[in-house]
TrEMBL record, chains A, B:
Native species: Sinomonas terrae
Protein name from the UniProt record: TetR/AcrR family transcriptional regulator
DNA-binding region: 36-55
Domain of life: Bacteria
Keyword Transcription regulation recorded: yes
Keywords tagged on the record: DNA-binding, Transcription, Transcription regulation
Species classification: Bacteria, Bacillati, Actinomycetota, Actinomycetes, Micrococcales
Pfam families per the UniProt record, alphabetical: TetR_C_11
InterPro entries the UniProt entry points to: Homeodomain-like_sf, HTH-type_TetR-like_transc_reg, HTH_TetR, Tet_transcr_reg_TetR-rel_C_sf, TetR_C
Residue ranges occupied by any HTH tetR-type domain in the UniProt entry: 13-73
Length: 192, 192
């Protein structure tokens, strides 16, 4: 199991960074099936036992790397929730709909015996949406429910990437965000 | 790679049945990590080489078993699309939201190097929805778009099961189907 939030700059954080970097470098050249713990350990400059102790197995490590990819700097901040959500959804599609992105998503879902990485991936997405909605609420905007953002916008994107990767059309993000805002019962500022 | 649609009653079909049964029996007792090709082969009465030749690797075989689970007798037929979709969504949740169901879903997403099993799983779901919608159209009902059924009803269910398994509340199926019908622009028979 990965250690949750190792102190930045601590040894745990440095090891994690080196191991993640090694995995990413190996994944750039070859399929997961050909990557082994000794290869990763050699490239990262750590003992194989460090990897086994910390991540349990390769599936858990691949999943951890996939989740880490989902944590960029912070959600978009355009000044309106409608535009923030659209930009965020577009960015999510861009990062995940490529063959590599899809592979990461599948690693995240499958990795680790307890499937904890998928749940962490889901939590990160919720946190980012929550940030955008709270900013909008502070600005006095009428904002959608967090759960509705997940159901109406994020879920169809993730579903298509996993189950129907040839069906992620241009404009999907804004179409889904529009559906979300159409569903808000009370009047709201028309984003058009 | 599994052979597509082996003739029913043929040797290929009998082998597939025996191997699937063996995997299911082993999975009832132990985690996938402890299941090996020789164990499956012994229980199924086939040579290990048969399994390697046909399924490539264990991931592909687990994924194939998971997809096969999604193919029950046929979608519900209650006489109205609204009720059919609700019954189908409830059934989908019931089959997938248990820890076992979730494990199968994750196997399906991760299994096989080319991830083809997830795509087949997506196709089966579309076929079943298409059947329900076509029946409704023949009865003269106003029916939602196939893509909207996937986006509005199926995607949120699958997303929650994978990423947020503690958040699959009672009544989710009918709430999502109601949202779908609320979105149909022209007047429709109120299902309430």
């Amino acid at each position: 199991m990965p250690i949750a939030d190792p102190r930045p700059g601590g040894r745990a954080a440095r090891v994690q960074q080196a191991v993640h970097d090694a995995v990413r470098a190996l994944q750039a050249d070859q399929d997961n099936d050909f990557i082994t713990v000794p290869k990763i350990a050699a490239l990262a400059g750590v003992a194989p036992s460090t990897i086994y102790r910390r991540w349990g197995d390769l599936g858990g490590l691949f999943a951890d790397v996939a989740v880490a990819r989902l944590r960029p700097d912070g959600p978009p901040d355009t000044g309106s929730v409608f535009d923030d959500l659209t930009a965020w959804a577009e960015q999510y599609i861009e990062e995940s709909a490529s063959p590599t992105g899809r592979k990461f998503m599948c690693d995240m879902v499958s990795g680790g015996a307890d499937r904890a990485s998928a749940i962490r991936g889901g939590e990160y997405a919720r946190e980012r949406v929550k940030t955008m909605l709270e900013r909008g609420r502070r600005r006095g905007e009428r904002v959608p429910d967090l759960d509705d953002v997940i159901d109406v916008v994020l879920a169809p994107i993730v579903y298509r990437i996993i189950f129907d990767p040839d069906d992620v059309p241009t404009g999907l993000a804004s179409r889904l965000v529009r559906r979300l805002f159409d569903d808000i019962p009370s009047p709201h500022t028309d984003p058009a």
